[in-house]
Amino acid sequence: xxxxxxxxxxxxxxxxxxxxxxxxxxxxxxxxxxxxxxxxxxxxxxxxxxxxxxxxxxxxxxxxxxxxxxxxxxxxxxxxxxxxxxxxxxxxxxxxxxxxxxxxxxxxx
Length: 109
Fold this sequence. Notes:
By secondary structure, this protein is mainly α. It has four helices and no strands. The radius of gyration is 19 Å and the shape is elongated.
């Protein structure tokens, strides 16, 4: 089964090993990555919802908003959230570059 990570890792491997990637392959992989990115987007939304709920809990306990925000970020889930956001940025950049790469290859044929 293809996953977001496996698709990106495969392209990364091919680039590192200097294996040519055709324009159509760049587009195909980008389409698959884009389709699978929805799960990552949903995961980030869940993290953000959990973070907001935790922050609200601290505020209900009488803590100032700035303290509540800091306390909410002081948990293991926040690290996972930051990793997921960083991954989403890398995926977005991959998609942008895949589109440009496919166009460059077509023009150079």
